[in-house]
Design a protein that fits this description.
- One of its GO terms (molecular function) is ATP binding.
- Residues 4-240 form the ABC transporter domain.
- InterPro entries: AAA+_ATPase, ABC_SmlMolc_Importer, ABC_transporter-like_ATP-bd, ABC_transporter-like_CS, Mo/tungstate-bd_C_term_dom, P-loop_NTPase, Transp-assoc_OB_typ2.
- By secondary structure, the protein is an alpha+beta fold.
- It folds into 2 domains: 4-235, Rossmann fold (3-Layer(aba) Sandwich); 244-371, RNA polymerase II/Efflux pump adaptor protein, barrel-sandwich hybrid domain (OB fold (Dihydrolipoamide Acetyltransferase, E2P), Beta Barrel).
- The chain has 9 helices and 21 strands.
- The chain has helices spanning 42-50, 98-108, 113-126, 142-154, 172-189, 200-206, 224-229, 234-239, 365-371; strands at 4-13, 16-26, 31-35, 57-62, 65-69, 74-75, 83-86, 160-164, 192-197, 209-214, 217-222, 244-254, 257-262, 268-272, 282-287, 293-296, 306-316, 321-327, 330-336, 344-348, 355-358.
- A 6-stranded mixed beta sheet has the order 7-8-9-3-10-11, with helices on both faces.
- Helix 2 runs parallel beside helix 4 (142-154).
- 37% of the residues are buried.
- The chain binds adenosine-5'-diphosphate.
- Adenosine-5'-diphosphate is lined by residues 13, 18, 36, 38-44.
Length: 375
């Protein structure tokens, strides 16, 4: 039985449609992430699961038990859903010690004194904070407060854990440590987890599966690898990781092998693509920076997809160099271990490594800026 089933969820605030037919199933024990830009409806979806918002239409069931079903008039209040929640703000009670913070949800659930003590001890043990049980929240670091919030969400053994940007108040270094730690804890506990973030790195590193959302719509659901390597739309490609985009026209096609004439240079590139493309159609080609190789112009390269370019910018970023290359009116981003490239170079890519999408919309503002060389 699926652990969390969200079916055809719609939500309106006033007459604004914030969720449009959101539909997904989370398996038992899965770490499932809702990823998307700010305002796309991630928290609203999570809040509908938690019972903090009522959907306008649709249904949600956990472990086969319906929590909300607008057609059948079912609505289970938050406190009867037995879900653990952690918010970005942690929302610890400042006047209570760590132990008292954890005791609160147990008191609400009328746990006995002995049961309470044992549960508080277990939950603090899980997050490695037993030694701080008598401290007040202001006596703890940000990372420790975040763990207390997590312990408080786990203390009554919830069936599902709901986490809304729980790491975003931590600084970069701590956030990375907390990420690894959270992943390990979730795996050890085997608890079904719904995680909300706008941070693609966080989503890729933590999740079993990711649901990418834009403007209240579900764009793609898949494993981190599927989302990164086979983004369903150019928007997903632009949002998850960096990507170069080129517009063009489909000149020729033979089965999966498509030939595209790029608008900016007139060069013809070959791309292996699935999908319904017709000759003459306007298309967008997307290529990840790491899928592009640079070779000096002096070295002769035979084969398809060899483009003549020139180095505009080069920056050293520790493990590699990031290059900006001129291709017609575009700047192409490429990464390379070689820091010595300059002047005229060739850009080479494998036809299997480019992605092809219908239409010529360049997905994001950032991508658009990347593509424009200042005059
Ligand atoms: P995300 O979590 O992806 O940042 P939210 O789910 O918080 O997005 O919000 C989605 C949209 O709904 C936003 O445009 C937001 O302004 C709007 N919204 C959220 N909560 C309310 C509310 N209580 N009343 C009106 N509009 C809301």
């Amino acid at each position: 039985m699926p652990e969390v089933r969200v079916s055809h969820l719609f939500k309106k605030f006033g007459n604004v449609n914030v969720l449009n037919d959101i539909d997904f199933t989370i398996n038992e024990g899965e770490f499932f992430t809702l990823l998307g830009p700010s305002g796309c409806g991630k928290s609203t979806t999570l809040n509908c699961i938690a019972g903090l918002e009522q959907p306008t239409a649709g249904s949600i069931a956990v472990g086969g038990t319906p929590f909300v079903d607008t057609e059948r008039g079912i609505y289970v209040p938050t406190e009867e859903r037995n879900l653990g929640m952690v918010f970005q703000s942690y929302a610890l009670w400042p006047q209570m010690t760590v132990s008292k913070n954890l005791a609160m949800p147990l008191s609400i659930r009328r746990a006995s004194r002995g049961d309470k003590a044992e549960r508080i001890h277990d939950a603090l043990d899980k997050v490695g904070l037993s030694h701080l049980k008598d401290r007040y929240p202001h006596e703890l670091s940000g990372g420790q407060q975040q763990r207390v919030a997590l312990a408080r969400a786990l203390v009554y053994s919830p069936s599902v854990l709901l986490l809304d940007e729980p790491l975003s108040n931590l600084d970069a270094k701590l956030r990375e440590q907390a990420r690894a730690w959270l992943k390990r804890l979730q795996e050890d506990l085997g608890i079904t987890t719904v995680y909300v973030t706008h941070d693609q790195d966080e989503a890729l590193s933590l999740s079993d599966r990711i649901a990418v959302m834009f403007e209240g719509h579900m764009a793609q659901i898949g494993t981190p690898k599927e989302i990164y390597e086979r983004p369903a739309t150019a928007h997903v490609a632009a949002f998850v990781g960096s990507c170069n985009f080129f517009t063009g026209k489909l000149e020729n096609r033979n089965g999966r092998i498509c030939q595209v004439r790029l608008d900016n240079t007139g060069a013809i590139v070959t791309i292996v693509a699935d999908g319904d493309f017709t000759i003459g159609q306007e298309v967008t080609v997307a290529i990840r920076p790491e899928k592009l190789a640079i070779t000096p112009e002096a070295i002769d390269v035979a084969g398809v997809n060899v483009l003549h370019t020139e180095v505009l910018t080069r920056s050293y970023v520790g493990s590699r160099y990031e290059y900006g290359l001129r291709l017609g009116r575009n700047v192409v981003q490429v990464v390379s271990a070689d820091g010595g490239l300059d002047g005229a170079v060739r850009l080479v890519f494998d036809p299997e490594d480019a992605l092809l999408y219908p239409g010529v919309t360049i997905p994001s503002q950032e991508a658009q800026e990347l593509m424009t060389v200042s005059a």
